[in-house]
Amino acid sequence: MTSPSGPSRRQVLVAAAAAATTPLIAAAPAQAAGAARSRTWDLTLLGTSDTHGNVYNWDYYRDAEYDDSKQNDIGVAKLATLINQIRRERRGKATLVLDAGDTIQGTPLATYYAKQEPITATGEKHPMPGP
Fold first, then answer.
1. For a Cys staple, 100 with which of 48, 49, 51, 88, CB 3.0–4.6 Å?
2. What's the number of domains the chain is made of?
3. Which residues, in sequence order, are CB contacts of 52 under 8 Å at separation 6+?
């Protein structure tokens, strides 16, 4: 269902996954007439959302390790560790990671680069990369 403000994050992730996998399907060689051969693809799709400028599992406002009621770790560093673990377990099989937004806003670090030292077309990279 689409809200009045636009598509949901889930809809965006599904559309992005479809767009990302289309080249895999389109690149499959054309089958000779009458030769029935099936192809399967082994793809793991991971989605992230609302990382809010957190690079490490650190509460930048309290200057202490982030802690929530469920003892969840946060941050792109944690995501990178989990993604690399999944890729190792899958031994080189395709893994696609899509982020649904709110990556570069939410912490003093992200705000600094947004307001004080905005990244321009000079070739600098924002310190908050996608996963």
1. 49
2. 1
3. 102, 103, 105, 106, 107, 110
Q: Is residue 82 part of a domain?
A: yes
Instruction: Look up residue 46 and give its two tokens.
Output: 């991971």
The answer to whether the beta carbons of residues 9 and 100 sit under 8 Å apart is yes
From 51, 49, 53, select the one nearest 11 (Cα to Cα).
Answer: 49
131 assigned to some structural domain: no
Q: 51-96: per-residue pLDDT in tens?
A: 888 888 888 778 888 877 787 788 888 888 888 899 899 887 888 8
Of 85-89, 117-121, 125-129, minimum mean pLDDT range: 125-129
Find out whether 47 and 95 touch, Cβ atoms under 8 Å. no
In a domain, 3, yes or no: no
The tokens of 63 are what? 């200057």
